[in-house]
Write a structure and sequence with these properties.
With 272 residues, the chain is an alpha/beta fold. The protein is 31% helix and 16% strand. It has two domains: 80 residues, Alpha-Beta Plaits (2-Layer Sandwich), CATH 3.30.70; 130 residues, Rossmann fold. Strands 5-11-10-9-7-8 form a six-stranded mixed β-sheet, with helices on both faces. It starts with a helix and ends with a helix.
């Protein structure tokens, strides 16, 4: 029986994700909230219930036609969408919330639209890291800096047969001395500031610091702690899915051409 199953698997189609067909939008997921064009028609009445209901204060009503989202602080919980009784905000299903620049994750909409801004040029550190890892991938040490372990669950899932992180040459190592990057989750509590800093300092360069998950990017529900330096990559979501994490890694390595604001703008245009 086992032999028959093995033969069947040989001829079965591969279940490994095809990055060429991967999409930043997943209709079955909430994704980040975005304003609808209804705000252009009627104008927001500035009740600010969405602000009150947002657990991380990632949404800000600026005027009756202007709204700002900080997607680095957004939990993608959908509370603002539920709170808005006018259907001025909706869940987009857009999940690729990552960038090398923290400010790129903050967007101000006017009449339900925005103009994407180009991302800043790579720093010397990121350019050196990309040159090192573009072909062979990288090893990383994961540091759980007082998070809720949901990010760790998704990182573990990234090594299964569907996502297959090692296919990209991305692997976890036990010691930061053997790593090319530190991936940390959680808001970085006082007790974890030292261990995170130590893990970073013992690594040889070129190296990268990666904030994985909303808590790591902005603190989320908690105060943001001290980091060794400004992260080289910010990955939003609480937690981000395995495919989102791996696409973000591919983006950092230079294997995936991507701009968060341009991709989101393209999605918004397609929804008109």
């Amino acid at each position: 029986m086992r032999s028959l199953l093995e033969i069947k698997n040989i001829f079965s189609p591969s279940q490994i994700i095809d990055w060429k067909k991967a999409s930043p939008v997943h209709p079955k997921n909430r994704g980040i909230p975005v304003p609808t064009l209804k705000i252009k028609e009627g104008g927001c009445n500035e009740c600010k219930v969405c602000e009150t209901e947002c657990p991380t204060h990632s949404v800000k009503i600026l005027s009756n036609d202007s709204i700002r989202f900080d997607y680095g602080a957004c939990l993608q919980c959908g509370s603002c969408v539920t709170a808005c009784g006018k259907d001025y905000i909706k869940n987009s299903g857009f999940l690729y919330v990552f960038s090398k620049d923290r400010d790129s994750l903050r967007i101000t909409y006017t009449n339900g639209e925005f103009t994407p801004e180009p991302e800043p040029a790579d720093t010397a550190e990121v350019a050196a890291f990309r040159k090192l890892t573009r072909t062979n991938g990288f090893l990383y040490r994961e540091v759980a800096a007082a998070g809720n372990n949901s990010v760790e669950c998704e990182l573990n899932a990234s090594f299964n047969s569907v996502f297959d992180s090692e296919r990209e040459g991305v692997r976890i190592v036990a010691s930061p001395k053997h790593a090319d990057a530190v991936v940390f989750s959680g808001p970085v509590s006082k007790g974890m500031e030292g261990p995170l800093s130590d893990a970073w300092e013992v690594m040889a360069g070129p190296k990268a610091l990666i904030a994985c998950g909303t808590e790591a990017v902005s603190g989320g529900l908690y105060p943001k702690g001290k980091r060794p330096k400004e992260p080289d990559l910010f990955i939003g979501g609480d937690p981000p899915r395995p495919d989102v994490v791996l696409q973000a890694f591919r983006y950092l390595m230079g294997r995936f051409s991507f701009s968060f604001q341009e991709a989101l703008h393209k999605y918004m245009q397609s929804e008109k």
